[in-house]
Amino acid sequence: MNKVxxxxxxxxxxxxxxxxxxxxxxxxxxxxxxxxxxSTFKGLVAGVLIGVFAxxxxxxxxxxxxxxxxxxxxxFLVANMQGKYYFEIMLPGAIVGxxxxxxxxxxxxxxxxxxx
Length: 116
Fold this sequence. Notes:
By secondary structure, this protein is mainly alpha-helical. It is built from 4 helices and no strands. The protein has helices at residues 3-20, 32-56, 60-82, 86-107.
């Protein structure tokens, strides 16, 4: 599976799991469906960007740093809209970016060389 598609799938799956961690915050349990949908979309977009990065830069450490930073940025944007729960939102977001970066770089297929 190519790196962009793998990043999309892993990011979306881990994003959904990230959204489900909102269950541990009782004040937001009534909004769990919207949180899971938003986190899935956030993971999907981050996964595609991480996949594109992994395709261009073939380094596991660089992809881990990029994925973690991207996860933190997206999670910060969501936490900033809430105005609270920064730690509860940013920690899982960073972990999603880290794991997506690792899976994408480690298990994604390299693009095939084109012949002229």
